[in-house]
Design a protein that fits this description.
alpha+beta; 6 strands; 6-stranded antiparallel sheet; 3 helices; homodimer
């Protein structure tokens, strides 16, 4: 398995639509909460953010919605670092129902390390964060990432 | 102007982060609420959904986050139908601060018309919905859509 589980949550009532399934619009929110967990994991935690005035901004997201999630499901988010440079991280995140191999939503994210202030500006990642990123990637046994486009849509006749 | 304004809203307190700016994760939610308004506009309203058991599912979304939005801003969503066929609509949505030409977030969406039931399946759009889509497009004076990739990121040194 080439992904690392970084976040798990039960459904919240406000995420459900009239049919008691997860409303699509809340999938990016779950990924955002997972990204917070990912930031903690690579050392961009609250202490780092307070000390450096730096954080990650999302520049771009690309999502594929593949399956429905029921009100009673627990979901988890798995992460895989596709690429990174001095200032940016290209991250793949997949949403699954816990204990299922089926991907509910597949996504890619471009995150930029930004120094916040009156005029936010891109800034280089701290050396210890770069090291944590390298370690996070090393923990992957790394099947190559196929990307969301290779997934089969489960709605029939699409 | 080739886009039609379909939705407008004031910021909600729960959408703001610690810096009193719109949290990125809520941008897709605003686009989702705008999509509800778009559905009403082309006749896929509550009565249609009740009568036909059909609605639109989101298959795919692609977003570019370009600017920050302050707590006090009113935002609007402009829509442009890029393409459609019997079952799908390819929609561009742009988020702007009301009374500003600057795009805050640019996005594309692939929406599928689905008959809901025990086993949801793609279904053809009703003839009156197709007509409403054609009318919606005709109302555009239609500069060609440049796509979010052509936008300049406002964070410096990205």
């Amino acid at each position: 398995m080439s992904f690392t589980t970084i976040y798990e949550t039960a459904m919240k009532p406000e995420w459900l639509d009239d049919n008691r399934i997860l409303r699509n619009a809340y999938v990016p929110l779950i990924f955002s909460l997972a990204t917070d967990a990912f930031m903690d994991r690579i050392g961009i935690d609250a202490a780092y953010r307070a000390r450096t005035a730096c954080t990650l901004y999302t520049l771009e997201s690309h999502l594929h919605f593949l399956r429905q999630v029921a009100a009673t499901d627990v979901v988890k988010v798995d992460a895989h670092i596709l690429d990174f440079d001095k200032k940016r991280i290209h991250l793949a995140l997949e949403l699954r129902v816990a204990n299922s191999a089926d991907v509910v939503a597949a996504s890619e994210w471009v995150l930029l390390h930004v120094h916040q202030g009156d005029k936010p500006a891109a800034a280089s990642l701290a050396a210890e964060v770069e090291r944590a990123i390298v370690e996070f990637r090393a923990a992957d046994t790394a099947e190559p990432w196929q990307g969301p486009r290779s997934r089969t849509i489960t709605v029939e006749n699409a």
